[in-house]
Amino acid sequence: MRKYVFVTGGVLSGLGKGVVAASIGLLFKLQGYRVSLQKIDPYVNVDAGTMNPYEHGEVFVTHDGKETDLDVGRYERFLNERLSAANYMTTGQVYWNVIRQERVGAFLGKTVQVIPHITDEIKRLIRLALEENDAEIGVIEVGGTVGDIESLPFLEALRQMKDELPREDTFFVHLTLLPHLSTSDEIKTKPTQHSVKELRGIGIQPNAIVARTECPVPDAVKAKIALFCDVPRDNVIEDPDLPSSYYAPLRLHENGLTKAISTGLHLPVREPDLQRWQDLVRAIEVPKDRVRIGIVGKYVELKDSYISIREAFLHAGAHEGIAVDTEWISSEHIARDGAETHLKDIDGLLIPGGFGDRGVEGKIDAVEYVRTHGVPYFGLCLGMECAVIEFARHVLGLPKANSTEFSPDTPDPVIALLEDQKRVVQKGGTMRLGAYEAKLRAGTISRECYGREAIEERHRHRFEFNPDYRERFEKAGMQIAGTSPGGELVEIIELPGHPWFVGVQFHPEFTSRFLAPHPLFRGFIRSCRERRRSSSSLRAS
Ligand code: GLN
Question: Which domains does the chain have, with CATH numbers?
Answer without folding.
Answer: 3-278 (3.40.50.300), 294-540 (3.40.50.880)
